[in-house]
Amino acid sequence: MEIVRWSLLVLIAATLFLQNSSNVEGRYHFHKRKNKTKGSPVSAPPANSPVPEDPNPPTPYDPPTIPSDPYPNDPGNASSARTFDVTSYGAVGDGSNDDTAAFREAWKAACAVESAILLAPSGYTYMITSTIFSGPCKPRLVFQVDGCLMPPDGPDSWPKADSAKQWLVFYRLNDMTLTGDGTIEGNGEQWWDLPCKPHRGPNGSTSKGPCDSPALIRFFMSSNLVVSGLRIQNSPQFHMKFDGCEGVFIVKMSISSPKLSPNTDGIHLENTNSVGIYNSMITNGDDCISIGPGCSNVDIQDVTCGPSHGISIGSLGMHNAQACVSNITVRNSMIRESDNGLRIKTWQGGKGCVSAISFQNIQMENVRNCMIIDQYYCMSKACLNQTSAVHVNQVSYRNIKGTYDVRSPPIHFACSDTVACTNILLSEVELLPYEGELVDDPYCWNAYGTQETATIPPIDCLKEGEPQNAEARELTSACSCST
Question: Given 31, 239, 268, 309, which residue is catalytic?
Answer without folding.
Answer: 309
